[in-house]
């Protein structure tokens, strides 16, 4: 299976996002100040959205591998680690300095979306989609 490691990483990310959401809803509710709970939940939300986006890119890559798809996956993975990871750490430790890392993760996520756009724009239409009028 092509991209087996990526598929496992994305599956793990999805599982961790669901566990993080459950942890926030059940264990952290009432234990953290509202702003820290909101930060944790933001981390979960961004992690899940990017996990779903990575699934879509992996499915696309399985049927039509293109230059740039790997970069998109790498940027989003690094973005999730820095953005969501720093928000989780900030919420659980209260160390405000960790919040300085979060924007770097956000920039990496945005860079991943822009890299996706470039990847799509650089792709040449394949013969099948041209024939069906979907080019």
Structural commentary:
With 135 residues, the chain is an all-alpha fold. The chain has 5 helices and no strands. It has helices at 4-28, 34-63, 69-93, 102-122, 127-131. α1 (4-28) packs antiparallel against α2 (34-63), α2 (34-63) packs antiparallel against α3 and α3 (69-93) runs antiparallel to α4 (102-122). The longest helix is centred in the middle third of the chain and has 30 residues, at 34-63. The protein is elongated and about 55 Å long. The chain starts with a helix and ends with a helix. The model has no long low-confidence stretch (mean pLDDT 92).
Number of strands: 0
The major β-sheet equals: none
Terminal-residue CA separation? 28 Å
- Sum up the overall morphology in one term: elongated
Label the structural class: mainly alpha
Question: How confident overall, as mean pLDDT?
Answer: 92
- Segments where pLDDT lies below 50 for 5+ residues? none
The proportion of residues forming helix, as a percent range, comes to over 70%
- Summed up, the helix count is 5
Rg on CA atoms, Å: 17 Å
SSE pattern: HHHHH
Report the β-strand fraction as a percent range: under 5%
In short:
This protein is mainly α. Helices cover 79% and strands 0% of the residues. The longest helix has 30 residues, at 34-63.
